[in-house]
């Protein structure tokens, strides 16, 4: 009983000091992987891939859309997670057949550099044409990596805040 009481008192005595100790440790050893806002010149390098994506998407060209991704890319959507170009191509084939989307427009809000990769955060809008046309939109996160002389999508995460 005395040992429990003693441990409880020691715990109470040091608990206010823990946040201070943790804070001091963080300042002494900062997290080395902080995002760096990409320069406008680097961010502009992504504009062609966004344009190519929108054009291929609006034409329902699944092969051209999938070609913008790396071989082992992953796309995470509310409909599931799809990996590899074949999986991504099948996902877009299903989306095009099921929803007949059109008028895709994407907009970059932020581009961050993480080592050799770029992380783009933005949003998109399009029209879904099933049953009746519906204007939708959502948020988008893409991680790009260099493959030879071009940027490819390594990871895409779509978030749909609105729906029919």
Describe this entry's structure for a reader.
This protein is an alpha+beta fold and 164 residues long. The chain folds into two domains: 1-30; 37-159, Nuclear Transport Factor 2, Chain: A. The chain contains six helices and seven strands; from the N terminus they run ααβαααββαββββ. The chain has helices at residues 2-14, 17-28, 40-44, 47-58, 62-66, 84-99, and strands at 36-37, 69-77, 80-83, 102-114, 117-130, 132-147, 150-159. The longest helix is centred in the middle third of the chain and has 16 residues, at 84-99. Residues 1-15 and 17-26 have low confidence and may be disordered.
Brief description of this entry?
With 164 residues, this protein is of the alpha+beta class. The protein has helices at residues 2-14, 17-28, 40-44, 47-58, 62-66, 84-99, and strands at 36-37, 69-77, 80-83, 102-114, 117-130, 132-147, 150-159. The chain has 2 domains: 1-30; 37-159, Nuclear Transport Factor 2, Chain: A, CATH 3.10.450.50.
């Amino acid at each position: 009983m005395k040992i429990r009481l003693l441990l409880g008192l020691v715990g109470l005595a040091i608990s206010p000091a823990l946040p201070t100790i943790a804070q001091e440790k963080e300042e002494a050893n900062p997290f080395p992987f902080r995002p760096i806002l990409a320069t406008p010149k680097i961010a502009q390098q992504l504009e062609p891939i966004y344009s190519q994506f929108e054009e291929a998407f609006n034409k329902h060209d699944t092969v051209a859309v999938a070609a913008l991704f790396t071989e082992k890319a992953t796309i995470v959507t509310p409909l599931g997670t799809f990996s590899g170009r074949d999986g991504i191509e099948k996902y877009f084939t299903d989306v095009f057949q099921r929803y007949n989307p059109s008028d895709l427009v994407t907009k970059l809000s932020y581009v961050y550099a993480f080592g050799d990769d770029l992380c783009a955060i933005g949003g998109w809008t399009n029209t879904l044409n099933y049953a009746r046309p519906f204007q939708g939109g959502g948020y988008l996160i893409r991680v790009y990596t260099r493959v030879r002389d071009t940027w490819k999508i390594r990871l895409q995460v779509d978030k749909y805040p609105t729906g029919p």
